[in-house]
Automatic annotation (TrEMBL):
<keyword id="KW-0963">Cytoplasm</keyword>
<dbReference type="GO" id="GO:0051959">
    <property type="term" value="F:dynein light intermediate chain binding"/>
</dbReference>
<dbReference type="GO" id="GO:0030286">
    <property type="term" value="C:dynein complex"/>
</dbReference>
<dbReference type="Pfam" id="PF08393">
    <property type="entry name" value="DHC_N2"/>
</dbReference>
<dbReference type="GO" id="GO:0007018">
    <property type="term" value="P:microtubule-based movement"/>
</dbReference>
<dbReference type="InterPro" id="IPR026983">
    <property type="entry name" value="DHC"/>
</dbReference>
<feature type="coiled-coil region">
    <location>
        <begin position="222"/>
        <end position="249"/>
    </location>
</feature>
<keyword id="KW-0505">Motor protein</keyword>
<dbReference type="GO" id="GO:0005524">
    <property type="term" value="F:ATP binding"/>
</dbReference>
<keyword id="KW-0969">Cilium</keyword>
<dbReference type="GO" id="GO:0045505">
    <property type="term" value="F:dynein intermediate chain binding"/>
</dbReference>
<dbReference type="Pfam" id="PF12774">
    <property type="entry name" value="AAA_6"/>
</dbReference>
<feature type="domain" description="Dynein heavy chain linker">
    <location>
        <begin position="264"/>
        <end position="672"/>
    </location>
</feature>
<keyword id="KW-0206">Cytoskeleton</keyword>
<dbReference type="InterPro" id="IPR042228">
    <property type="entry name" value="Dynein_linker_3"/>
</dbReference>
<dbReference type="InterPro" id="IPR013602">
    <property type="entry name" value="Dynein_heavy_linker"/>
</dbReference>
<dbReference type="InterPro" id="IPR027417">
    <property type="entry name" value="P-loop_NTPase"/>
</dbReference>
Length: 856
């Protein structure tokens, strides 16, 4: 049954791919096994099998299994056929490649040597190919044995492959003959090339030796000799390359390499002659041009560089040719050339002086006075003609004049560069908000300031120079222009800064109404500013702006006006701050914003917290009246009296009314809370009143009850009251554990801190056996009293108010609203701070505690 399984094809493929690859014996064994399986199927079963009532025909199934076995046999035989075809195709390609390569014609020594090696290697390769052909013939016989007929194409491929060994005998014989002939031809060529190269070297050696005898008389033919020696140098360089190529070809033929070391030696020997004659030729030609050409076209730096280089080279050559073995002829050439260069070097100072690019007509006129004739700068006036007129006798005076011209020229160039630096530099203006005018942008202004700082210093240095006189008519006005422009920029930027600050302030009608004199001055200055900026926007080039008539004076006047306006504004703000001192908590900008928006009190709302620290906002009614306040924590307190900003007018006045109303409200609510304390349950009372007053009123009652306990029971009374304090504290703790709003929880939290301290103080006094209200242990505590006073801080008529006492110091409670804020734990250090600060307040002094939070 394995013949019909799905794994049969996979087993056949695995058989063919096994490593090492199966040979013909393995294929034969597998084919025989499959044939035996088919024979067993045919003989093992009859065509009909009777089973009870049924007769089963097995012939079709037997045929199916036999066909499966035959198909597997054909698959294995096809693998053998495919391997034969693949091998024959590779054999044909290999033989064809050998034939093609062997038939190539060699064009160089490298190619003929490579071809010869290829033919030798091909003999071994063809032996392997013949072995492959023999193996393929065995496989063909194997296929015939099993009567497997390959396709016609495979047969043709095999015939071509099997014919190659016979054909290659003649092909390789012909190729060997051809390559041997080519080899001999190239050997002859190399030998001839080697001989010709040797003859050329002898010729070069003879030419080189001739330069040893070439003396100063050859200077007349200097250009020709320089060309010849340069050509010989190039030939020797080519000879060096030729020698390397010949040695490489000799190596290919297996010959001993020829020695051509004399080529490098000849190059080394020739090099001084090349330098000698090229230097002499170049300098003599330049000398003729310098001496006979127009002198004004000479460039002193180039002349000096070439002259000094020539002298340096010729000086070295005289040393070289003068050493042993001496060579007198080239030595004479070098010495004569050096002497000529040295003689010309004497004229270099004169050339530098009369060819100075800084010389101007005034200098040429002065030079004519010195030498006694006019020095013309034309095509016919040469250096030789000037020397013939003995101009060199006045060299010192001419040099001094040229030096002066150079210094003046440096000033002239610096002045021209400064002028060029300002060309195209213009102000960049930008519109400022909705004002309808412009302001200066920073980029070009910064660049202008850097240029001014640099150029003014340079102008001052140049003005102090004795060589600046010819440019005084340009330099002095230019310096004044720069200095004036710097002053303009300084005044301009100062004016712009103040204008940007004051323009939005005086753009508000409320400010203009309150300080009309300063407002009028600012309007006048603003008109000048707009006129200046409009003119600059039409003509922004800086050098043109610097020449605007009266610009500096206008800017100075504007700054003077702005100083007056700014002083008046500050005086006005100080007046407002004195009227409502809480304005000192604000910056000038914030105060100005409040004043400019005073006609709408709602616009003052964002600044309320800075004036009243614990007040987040005021409560405005629909009619504009202020009816209460809201703390930062969200605690709302209605005022006892409403404040009408419209009735009072000025913002500082109605803010004063708000401040007074806050104090009156807290005073009144404190009295009501104290009255309610005696009637209501304390736990419920805590939740019904503002947090700040809960703390104060609780302290008032604690002071009153402690005093009563001391008077009635002494230390025992204090001990009993301490237990009562603990009970009250426990009730508050229980209250905190329940459901409370955030404000109620904040009130309870702060009260717990106060009550804990109160209980501890009471228990401590009981422990210390305090029996009298005048005992220092009691008088040293911070005590709150509700007493009659003729002038309460709330500004109302004489009535009860909160008094705070500690030792012999006392202070009226100020009713400053503090919101419903938390409290830090009270420690003995806190009590010491209380005593110190109360003493300071009692003496009309002040104090500010400092140190880590929570330590007292």
């Amino acid at each position: 049954m394995w013949l019909l399984s799905d794994e049969t094809d996979a087993r056949v493929a695995a058989f063919a791919a096994a490593e090492p690859r199966p040979g013909l014996d393995e294929y034969r064994a597998e084919l025989d096994r499959l044939g035996a399986a088919a024979d067993a199927v045919r003989s093992a079963c009859t065509n009909v099998v009777v089973t009870g009532l049924y007769a089963v025909r097995t012939s079709d199934f037997k045929e199916l299994m036999c066909e499966a076995a035959d198909a597997l046999r054909r698959s294995l035989l096809d693998q053998v056929r495919a391997s034969v075809r693949e091998s024959n195709v590779a054999i044909n390609e290999a033989y064809l490649a050998i034939q093609t390569e062997a038939a190539k014609v060699s064009h160089s020594v490298d190619e003929v040597v490579a071809l010869k090696r290829f033919i030798q290697k091909s003999n071994a390769d063809m032996e392997k190919l013949r072995d492959a052909i023999a193996s393929n013939r065995e496989k063909d016989a194997f296929l015939v044995e099993y009567r497997f007929a390959p396709p016609e194409e495979d047969f043709e491929v095999g015939i071509r492959a099997y014919e190659w060994p016979r054909k290659m005998v003649d092909i390789m014989k012909e190729a060997t003959t051809k390559v041997n002939l080519e080899h001999k031809e190239f050997e002859a060529q190399v030998k001839k090339r080697r001989k010709d190269f040797g003859d050329a070297l002898e010729k070069y050696q003879a030419e080189l030796a001739a330069y040893d005898e070439l003396g100063a008389d050859g200077i007349t033919r200097r250009d020709q000799i320089a060309a010849e020696v340069t050509a010989l140098s190039e030939q020797l360089k080519a000879a060096q390359v030729e020698a390397e190529e010949i040695n490489a070809q000799e190596k290919l033929f297996g010959w001993a390499a020829s020695k051509y070391g004399n080529v490098a030696k000849m190059q080394s020997t020739l090099e001084p002659y090349v330098t000698l004659w090229t230097t002499v030729s170049t300098f003599y030609d330049s000398y003729a041009s310098w001496m006979n050409g127009p002198f004004y076209k000479l460039i002193p730096e180039e002349v000096e560089t070439e002259t000094n280089d020539s002298f340096r080279r010729l000086y070295k050559l005289t040393k070289l040719f003068g050493t042993e073995p001496a060579r007198p002829s080239p030595l004479g050439v070098a010495e004569e050339g050096r002497n000529k260069v040295s003689a010309f070097q004497e004229h270099l100072p004169l050339i530098a002086a009369i060819c100075n690019p800084g010389l101007r007509d005034r200098h040429w006129a002065a030079m004519a006075d010195i030498v006694g004739f006019e020095v013309r700068r034309d095509e016919v006036t040469s250096l030789k003609r000037l020397l013939d007129q003995d101009i060199g006798e006045q060299l010192s005076k001419i040099t001094e004049l040229s030096d002066t011209a150079s210094r003046e020229w440096s000033i002239e160039k610096a002045l021209a560069k400064m002028t060029a630096d300002w060309e195209g530099l213009a102000f960049e203006l930008g519109p400022w908000k909705e004002t309808g005018t412009f302001i200066l942008k920073g980029g070009p202004v910064d660049e202008a300031q850097m240029l001014l700082d640099d150029h003014i210093v340079k102008c001052q240095a140049m003005s102090a120079s004795p060589f600046a006189k010819p440019f005084a008519d340009k330099l002095i006005p230019w310096e004044k222009k720069l200095v004036r422009f710097q002053e303009i920029l300084d005044q301009w930027l100062k004016c712009q800064g103040k204008w940007l600050y004051l323009e939005p302030i005086f753009g508000a009608e409320e400010i203009m109404k309150q300080i009309p004199r300063e407002g009028s001055a600012f309007r006048e200055m603003d008109a000048t500013w707009r006129r200046i900026m409009a003119a600059v926007s039409e003509q922004p080039v800086m050098t043109d702006v610097a020449e605007f008539e009266g610009l500096l004076e206008d800017l100075v006047a504007c700054n003077t006006s702005l100083d007056v306006v700014e002083k008046g504004l500050n005086d006005f703000l100080d007046t407002k701050k004195m009227a409502f001192p809480r304005f000192f908590f604000l910056s000038n900008d914030e105060l100005l914003e409040i004043l400019s928006e005073a006609k709408d009190p709602l616009n003052v709302q964002p600044f309320v917290k800075k004036c009243f620290e614990a007040v987040k906002e005021l409560t405005f009614e629909t009619d504009g009246e202020i009816s209460g306040m809201v703390s930062v924590e969200g605690e709302k307190i209605p005022f006892v009296d409403t404040v009408n900003p419209a009735a009072t007018g000025a913002v500082e006045r109605w803010l004063l009314d708000v401040e007074s109303d806050i104090r009156r409200t807290l005073h009144k609510v404190a009295g009501e809370a104290l009255e309610a304390y005696a009637k209501a349950d304390r736990a419920q009372w805590i939740l019904e009143w503002p947090g700040q007053l809960v703390l104060n009123c609780s302290q008032v009652y604690w002071t009153r009850e402690v005093t009563d306990a001391i008077r009635t029971g002494g230390s025992k009374g204090l001990a009993a009251y301490a237990e009562k304090c603990s009970e009250q504290l426990n009730r508050i703790v229980g209250l905190v554990r329940g459901r409370l709003t955030s404000l109620e929880r904040a009130t309870c939290g702060a009260l717990v801190v106060i009550d804990v301290h109160a209980r501890d103080v009471t228990a401590d006094m009981a422990y210390k056996r305090v029996e009298d209200v005048r005992d220092f242990n009691w008088e040293s505590q911070l005590r709150y009293y509700w007493e009659h006073h003729e002038a309460p801080p709330s500004g109302v008529h004489a009535q009860e108010t909160i008094m705070v006492r500690m030792i012999n110091a006392e202070a009226l409670y100020g009713y400053e609203y503090l919101g419903n804020s938390g409290r830090l734990v009270i420690t003995p250090l806190t009590d010491r701070c209380y005593r110190t600060l109360m003493g300071a307040i009692h003496m009309n002094l002040g104090g500010a505690p400092a140190g880590p939070a929570g330590t007292g």
